Here is the input.
Amino acid sequence: DTGVSQNPRHKITKRGQNVTFRCDPISEHNRLYWYRQTLGQGPEFLTYFQNEAQLEKSRLLSDRFSAERPKGSFSTLEIQRTEQGDSAMYLCASTIGTGGAGYTEAFFGQGTRLTVV
Amino acid sequence: AQSVTQLGSHVSVSEGALVLLRCNYSSSVPPYLFWYVQYPNQGLQLLLKYTTGATLVKGINGFEAEFKKSETSFHLTKPSAHMSDAAEYFCAVSNTGRRALTFGSGTRLQVQP
Here is the structure.
């Protein structure tokens, strides 16, 4: 396993178009997170999945954003009717959620950089 | 609610000098604390973490951090900076619940020859 994989690495789209990003987590990891990072800022939490269930969505995730994780494996993040403000790096991370007090490290992918023109 | 404040968006040190990156957090429950490093156009790599136990934690590449509950701080240090340490550093907080990370706004470290 080579880690968390995100595709594409870069995406340029025209305002109003729809885009979809893919994240392939580390195979045994049951938790998957999406973050958004704008220039000069730290990543901001968008949503997370435990297996195929989407357990939490940030208020940052407007109704133009939708995320799925069918069968608890890879995940997709779709943005409809893109706006210039959606330009950012979208990061995916995965980890093993034990449900207890223990902690396992979250591993990040290299991100997808979206530019909306 | 949780939050992280990183003091100083840019820090410049000479090669061989001490590195000190400051982080203060706010959390209503016992926190998990992290430092991540990010190189240009890359994802984040974990440097070190504090969950429970010893408050002085050592990480990769010679970095360490000390959890000080009374000061709500988790400052990152390295005794001697190397040119390869130039990067963006993020402090983050989490808890035992959903484990999502709340990040600070980052500190860009420059290392001068």
Q: What stands out?
A: The radius of gyration of chain B is 13 Å. Chain B has a mean pLDDT of 92.
